[in-house]
Amino acid sequence: MAFDETANIEEAARNTMLSKTSDHGSGCSADGNLIVEAGIYDRFLEQLQKEGGYLATEKEKEKLQAVLWDAEGHRTMDTIACAPQKLAEKAGFSIPADRKFIIVKEDHIGKEYPFSSEKLTTLLAIFKYSGGFDTALEMVKQIYEVGGKGHSCGIYSFNDERIHQLALTAPVSRIMVRQPQSKANAGAFNNGMPMTSSMGCGIWGGNITNENIALKHYMQTTWVARPIQEDRPSEEELFGEFYNTETF
Q1: Into which CATH architecture does domain 2-218 fall?
Q2: 223 exposure class (CB count in 10 Å sphere: 0-12, 13-18, 19+)
Q3: Of 28, 82, 153, 201, which is the active-site residue?
Q4: 28 is catalytic
Q5: CA–CA dist 193, 133 (Å, integer)
Q6: Dihedral of the CA atoms 193, 199, 201, 202 (nearest 10)?
Q7: Which of 56, 121, 176, 246 would you call most buried, defined as having the most Cβ atoms within 10 angstroms of its Cβ?
Q8: In this predicted model, what pLDDT tens digit does every residue of 125-145 receive, in sequence order?
Q9: C-alpha torsion sign, points 77, 78, 82, 86
């Protein structure tokens, strides 16, 4: 998720909470990595805590990493789709009963930094960017080199050019604009996405389609083609300005 300086902080934090807490964050669509512009970073982080986030200390972050991933870097099964209190307990500390998800600060992206990968639980990582939106786009590209190609990302911005830039940059099948990611990806009455819980990731993810999987994708279709009157465009129509030109 990318958040630029035009974002509505209250709306963005509220939607992040809704997305991260849906099904205990177990869905691939649940917010995992937040890339936030430096000018709004502190206020947004504060608002996330107002929405029920618990900001882990550096020591608690180390303990969480030790229980979320095994020695080979694989996610541990007993920490997937866990309530934040249960996650903290497994890591050896406690958090208030009213906390809905855990936030860890992260500065690095790469396979050697597991918090920049997929979480599948009630925990997210927050990154800060400065120096312009191009920096955010570069961080997005780095995150997708860690994982998640073909699936989705989101943006909180009222700048249409930046939304378009993200769409051109991110190797994903769907981008949600100012919406709770996990709920919007699956289709909503106010965004036009086909309603489903199965999402294709296209050739980025090794899938045959990048659409939201619906009934039509499970139906077998037989095409019956009979001869019809030929409808053939002329070569001039096909090649336009390049028709009948010579190259030397």
Answers
A1: 3-Layer(aba) Sandwich (3.40)
A2: exposed
A3: 28
A4: yes
A5: 27
A6: -70
A7: 121
A8: 999 999 999 999 999 999 999
A9: negative
